[in-house]
Amino acid sequence: MTAGAHGGDHAALMDANYRFQRHVYDLTRKFYLLGRDRLVDALQVPAGGSVLELGCGTGRNLALVAKRYPHARLFGLDISPAMLATAHRTIARRGLGGRTRLARADATGFDPQALFGRQKFDRVFVSYALSMIPGWERTVAAGLDCLAPGGSLHIVDFGRQERLPRWFASTLRAWLARFHVAPRDGLREVLESESQRFGASLRFDSLFRGYAVLAVMTRGSPSET
Q1: Which contiguous run of DSSP H or E holds residue 62?
Q2: Which among 77, 138, 193, 211 could disulfide-bond with 108, CB atoms 3.0 to 4.6 Å apart, if both were Cys?
Q3: Which keywords appear in this protein's UniProt record, sorted alphabetically (predicted)?
Q4: What is the pLDDT of residue 33?
């Protein structure tokens, strides 16, 4: 499913936010979007495996996955045409067009068969996108739904900042709100609920004193169901 009325509003908002920022996004975000490289290392993509990023933004993460896993097939979707234009340039500049497909779609509900010609992926990941997506809970469900048996959904995003100084946490949240970003304080509870619903296991780690969280949800293989 591509962006509908609600998704269209969010796409316009993201385009307005990042139409100019996208050109310096990767240079500036590396200082505070912590844990992204750790997520990529943890993917452990099988040889020839497929990887889908929900909310692929500038394509920075997919390019990193391509370097780390040279035989992986890469897929990415984003709701923002401006971000996708940057992602296409990133992929072309790195010479990854032959193994990467990008599409515009709403991460809260999409048809992978229509977008990419396939229903399932070995790995799906979401990097600092849930905190920007209205109805982010549906993105978790959509990611789990398109996992192949034995596949895993990987998530990194802002945490509750529970072990950081209160002034730092409040300042961070106020600053993030200027960019329509909100840490999802109920993330762990949603992941636990969705793991039970999909028969998946959950690993949930707090990073950097709660600044960020890294979660892995793994669906059982046919022999385990």
Answers
A1: helix 60-68
A2: 138
A3: Methyltransferase, Transferase
A4: 78
